[in-house]
Each structure stands twice: as structure tokens, then as C-alpha cells.
Amino acid sequence: MTTAATAAPRVRIEQRPIRARLALTVGVCGSLALVTCLLAPLAGSTSISLARVFDRSIPFTENVDAQIFFVARMPRVLAGAVVGAALAAAGVVLQALLRNPLATPFTLGVSAGSALGAILAIAAGLAATLGPFSPVPLASLAGAFVAATIVYALATRPGRPISTSVLLLAGVSLNSVFSALILFVQYMADFAETYRTVRWLMGDLDVGSFAPILGALPLLAAAFAIFATLPSSLNLLSVGAESAATRGVDVARAQRLAFLSTSLATGAAVSLAGPIGFVGIVVPHLVRLIAGVDHRILLPAAALFGAAFLVACDLVARTVLAPVEIPVGIVTAMLGGPFFLWLLVRKG
Amino acid sequence: MSLAVEHLFFRYGARANGLGAFSLHDVSVALARGSLTGVLGPNGCGKTTLLKLLSGVLRPQAGTVALDGRAMGSLSRREIARHIAVVPQETHPAFDYLVLDMVLMGRHPHLGPFALEGPDDLRMAREALVATGTHQLQARPYMTLSGGEKQRVVIASALVQAPDVLLLDEPTASLDLGYQLEIASLLARLNRERGVTMVLATHDLNLAASLCDTLVLMRGGHVLAQGPTGEVLTDAAIRQLYDVDADVRFHERAGHLTVVPVRRVP
Questions:
Q1: B88: closest CA of chain A, how far (Å)
Q2: Residues of chain A contacting B96 with CB distance shorter than 8 Å
Q3: Among A30, A114, A265, A299, which one is least packed by beta carbons within 10 Å?
Q4: pLDDT on residue B16
Q5: Which option is the CATH number for A25-347: 2.60.120.260, 3.40.190.290, 1.10.3470.10, 3.40.50.970?
Q6: Of residues B97, B117, B130, nearest to A1 (C-beta)
Q7: Is the pLDDT of residue A129 over 60?
Q8: ipTM score of complex
Q9: Would you say domain B3-264 falls under CATH 1.20.1250.20?
């Protein structure tokens, strides 16, 4: 033992105790998310000052800067933060569950089901609101639920671990089926409705008020509560299902929880903002490069970084062609696509 | 700890016509506390399946697996993992874990649901790295290691699990001669000093002869023979097991039985 202690190389950053690495990474990513969320509402067609926004001497009703900050822009920024966090975390969990670094929250067909639900509601011309909820997000959630149920039923056998290859193939097949159905609905719908569905599919964080975010919050809270229990199981699952079992992981249970939580997070995020691509694959890989592959650090860091990333992308979407606001889905894909290609080439 | 299986029946993907299904028939094996048992037999004889039943990864359709007299089916995965560790044939992580991360994962069954490993866990990991001669690799990504280095890291990971029983599937298959001997002496030392009960499935008859005090010979899902190595390992047993004519002799310098295969017999 003494020889090992004296021969041990100088402690590198990866070898600091896990507690220190966790605090450092979460602290950095958390600050990044917080700063982004505070600064993003300052930018826009009307310039406002942060000092005036938080100036308590002016009553809120007379403080135009505060009204723009909190009422006009903050809902959109918050929507970006929760959707970014949900998609990035779901990406991390699914990549570990499927033992496949190329998996995304949209791989298992949940988002395609969600999109089909939303598009059916749009094409049917459902505009009336049901109490506090509007029909498109509700139909979108219903679609996500149907898709998740079908994939789950196909890939699971009672008491047995999930077959990840069946899960992957079932998800990919279901994605194609739902995509074909979406095209069919668009083909049959009239011009105006088709335009609305196409806009919805681009992904957009313009939620209008805090109400839609509050509607999605219970599902997101449930998803994140489950995420919090998963990281050490995800480490072992990504080494191998059988070796995880021999290290004390209840594999079937962990896999079911991972599937349930990612379906909840993806369904809620897509119902809120449409299928915003690439956040769920770019952010996990980016954070892995910086913070390493230990899911106890990676998962919270990716959620926080995902929040910052999507809010920043949306800032670009709002300002780059101002006064025109382009859908954020276009920006994430334009930034994410080249990154993904670079990653593929680097790994290849 | 002792481990015993009685009248074990198991088949994969049980189908009515019985086609394509591999099975174990009426397998009974007793592994005494502190014993070092080798499981020998041709490819597909059921060695790996027996190990998976012993570790509780597979559940038998009939028969019992008992850990110190307690039925395996009544224990949680966590409880089993605190007593039984497994070294599989191969380990392919999906992500680029460092060697130290891989070894620390062995502490999982001993940590609470939200607990992070502390200084004691780190000390155990360093000890296991030293015991397997891999401490200089601890900051390397696991995927960049050679086959033999990977195997020793996986053994280190099993050691920090502080098991009473260690199940090893072909532990020396990917190792060169030097590391084969090194792993053999490491296993013998762990067995002697920590009293770890060990079961190893292997095709290396000379490793089994040098290391194991007990042998279980399997073919076609049946146990052909089991008992002390000196009694079970004979010319006739090798012929029956592998259809191979072999010389089994005591080697003076090595101090154990050796097997020299001569030719295949029909």
C-alpha cells in the first residue's frame, strides 16, 4: 500500500473526490443557467435595464422595464429553461438505458406520438380551451402517452429486464409510423392548417404566459424526481445490464423507471414547445466532454447546461433577424447539426 | 459463505417443441465455505449458465440455489451483491469510464441510494488496484487498456465489492502466459488470505489443476462428476468430457496435476 501511495501520480481533476467534482460542476452549470435566464430577457426589440427592472422604488404597474422583463419575456425564457433541462436530461438517461451514445429523447417515438396528437388537434380545428388547458398541448400529451404505452408493451416482459434492442427498434419503427401519419394528416388538411402544423413541428418557445409552463410542471417535476434516483444505476447499466445486476442494481426496475421518466419529460417538453431537436443529443455529449461520464455529475450538469443552452439558442432566434423571430428549433438544429457531424467524424 | 444448488433445472426460451432451447438437467453442486472450485466442460455445456444461476442473474425453473442456507429467490439484488461478486468473460462499457471509476462501481451494493463514495471506498479501490497490479492505470480510460489489463481491472472492481463468494467466467482467457500465472496466484492468495469462496469456469485445464481444490465436470447440461481435483481429473474423465485422449500426470516441479492433450478421439 505504501508503495502505491508514494507512486501515485499528482491528483488530476477527474480524480478529485466525487463530492468536490459534483459541487464544482453543478455550481458552474447552475450559475451559467441562472445568468442566462437573467440576461436573456434584457435583449429584444425594446432595450431595458436590469437595474430598472429590479428598482423597488418604482411600482410594478408603472415600471415598464419590469413589465417587459417579467410579463412579456420571462415566460418564454422560463419555457426555454425547463424544456432545455428536460430534453438534455432525458437524452442522458436514454443514452445510458439504451447503451447507445446516439440515442435522443426522440428516438423512442414518444415525441412523434406527441407531435401526431398535436397535429390532429390543430387539423381538427380545436381552438376552444378546456378550462385552463388548451387542446393542442393536451392532445400532444395524449399522443405521447399512447406512443410510450405501445413501445413499452412491445419491449417488456413481466419481471424480465427490458430488451434494449427491441426497445430501440420498436421506437424507431413507431417513429416512422407516426411520421407517416403526420404527413397524411398534413396532406389531407387545408392550406392554413397545414401551415400551422408545420410551424408547430419547428418547435417554438413563444408560450405567451406562465400558464402553459405551470400546466407542464407537475409532469416535469415527477420526471426529475425519478431522474434524481437514477444516476448510479445508469453508471452500472451503461457498463452492462448483467454486470449491473451482479453489483446490486434491480435492472428491470431501473430500466422501467428510466423509460417512464424520459417519456414524462419528453412528452411534457414537446407538448409545451414542440419537438425542438438536437438539445437532447448535443448537450449530453458536450457536458460529457467537459464533466466526464459519471452520471451522478453528468445528469444534473446536463440538465442545467441544457437550460442555459436552449435559452441562449432562443435568444439568437429572437434577435438574429429582429424584428422577425425565427423558431428556436431551427437554431438548435443549425448549431446542433454541424456539432453532431463533427462528433461523428471525430469518433470515426 | 457457502453456496449450494440442488436439483436445478433451467432452460432458455422454453418452447413447446424444445428446439433451440438449451437446458441444465438436475444439477446439484455444493460449494463449501472457502473452497476453490473449477467448472470444466466443452463449449455450450452449461458452465456460464450455472454461474449465472449461482449469481442469481438467472432464476431456475425448478430446484433451489441457497446462499448460507437462505434461498436466493428471497434475497434482493443488493443483498446478493454484498456477498457474491462476478467477473464476466468480457466487459464493454458504453461510455469512456476511467479505470478508477470502473473499480469504484464495485462499491455500489454497499452505498446508500444517494450516497457518494468516501475515503474508505477510495482506499479499498486503491488496495484492489495494487492487488491486481493496475494502480498505475487508474487515471486511464478503461477502453484504452489491453485485454489483460481490462480483465485485471474488472477483477479489482469485483474485489472492492468485498465478496464472500467470487464467480469468475474464463478469468484468464484473454491473458498471456505471465498474466495467467499472476491472476492464478492472485486468486489463490485471495482464497487463502480472505477466505473468499471461488468458482471459476474455465477451459484451461492446467490452471484448474493448479488452483482448484474441487472440480465439477459438466457436459450437455449434466454434471458428469464432481469431487477433489486429484480424484476427478483423470485420463478417462478428459476423454468423456472432451472426446480427447490426454495424459494427466503429476508434475514434480509445478507440484500439481498437468494435462497434455494428445489427440481427438471419435
A1: 8
A2: 293
A3: A30
A4: 45
A5: 1.10.3470.10
A6: B130
A7: no
A8: 0.90
A9: no
